Amino acid sequence: MDAATWTSDDWLGQAQTWLDEQLAAAGTPRTGELTQPRVRAWGTVLRADTTAGPVWLKAPGPETVFEVQLYRLLATIVPRFVLDPIAADVERGWVLLPDGGPTLREQLGDHDLSEVMVQVLPQYAQLQLDLMPHAEDLLATGVTDMRPAVMPQRFEEALEATGRYVAAEGDAEARERHTWVAGQRKEFTTRCADLPDRASLDHNDLHTSNILGRPGGPVRFYDWGDSVLAHAFSSMLIPLLALTKLLDVDPDDQLVRRPRDAYLEVFGNPAELLAELELACWIGKVARALVWERSLHGDPGEFADAPLETLLALRMNSWHFPA
């Protein structure tokens, strides 16, 4: 699938027919025109008003179509933390979701971001704890295995994928930096063996535009197309990075530490788990690079260098990225 397919009259006609059938079965017929707010390299989203409010039909691309089955699994195991699909067609790769209300980003912008994440991240941690006994079920949906034991192999895959970009587009500096990262494979393998197997679902793009709910209350997490099965703490890579960049603070600022520690407290003593989090996020940069690669497959566009820049962030020996 690609943008040309998703915007064609034939595909849109099929999607509308399926959507109307599912809404009729649910007793909530459509009351407005079908619109297409987003078309990206990794999927498209359609929106329609119904007698019960807006609904969203998501069609992930072939690299992330596992999200359809994943939504059904999450709604069974952790229903209070996710949207419950109205319908799902695994063969077509379509999932129909109710409207979850505004995102935290839409309500707050970056205002009070640190305090909001202090409230939100423990809820996400609980979701991860609830999912820990279900690793095999997660893999069965098609979620990629990024647990510590397989990460040396993933490191090689990331080197190969980013190496193609460097060969085609990179300059001398990019080639030099890529060569340096390739030289770290022994250390990377050793450090993977040092990381405990605390596997759960890693959303891999956890920021306030992917979180629904009211500040200070229960929230729901959505947009699971980037997720992988990994060490739980690697999920903090994106939230911690967002806090430093959006608030323009240092990584050790209390506006970053408080949300980080609120997350870790769900698992134990933050002081005793901090080194594990740092290592999990450092290793998680490889997973993030591969997630970028699969999302952009066939249509890199403006994000073409994202996999490489993410992998090169291994130069920072923690969750930090270069300034």
What does this structure look like?
With 323 residues, the chain is of the alpha+beta class. The chain has 2 domains: 3-98, Phosphorylase Kinase, domain 1; 104-315, Alpha-Beta Complex (Aminoglycoside 3'-phosphotransferase, Chain: A, domain 2). It contains 13 helices and 10 strands. It has helices spanning 3-6, 9-26, 66-77, 104-108, 113-131, 135-140, 151-169, 172-182, 185-194, 237-247, 254-264, 270-296, 306-312, and strands at residues 35-40, 43-50, 53-60, 87-89, 94-98, 144-146, 199-202, 211-213, 219-221, 228-231. A 5-stranded antiparallel beta sheet has the order 1-2-3-5-4, sandwiched between helices. Strands 6-10-7 form a 3-stranded mixed beta sheet. A hairpin with a 5-residue loop joins strand 8 (211-213) and strand 9. Helix 5 packs parallel to helix 11. 40% of the residues are buried.
CATH architecture of the largest domain: Alpha-Beta Complex
Number of domains: 2
Largest sheet: 5 strands, antiparallel
User: Reading side by side through the largest sheet, how are the strands ordered?
Assistant: 1-2-3-5-4
Taking pLDDT < 50 over at least 5 consecutive residues as the criterion, the unreliable ranges are none
Number of strands: 10
> What structural class do the secondary elements suggest?
alpha+beta
**What letter string, H or E per element, gives the SSE order?**
HHEEEHEEHHHEHHHEEEEHHHH
CATH superfamily of the largest domain: Aminoglycoside phosphotransferase (APH), C-terminal lobe
Alpha plus pi helix count = 13
Q: Would you state the CATH class of the largest domain?
A: Alpha Beta
Helical percentage: 40-55%
Give the termini separation. Answer: 36 Å
Q: What is the percentage of strand-forming residues?
A: 5-15%
Basic shape:
globular
Rg (CA only): 20 Å
> What is the third-level CATH name, the topology of the largest domain?
Aminoglycoside 3'-phosphotransferase, Chain: A, domain 2
What's the rounded overall pLDDT mean?
92
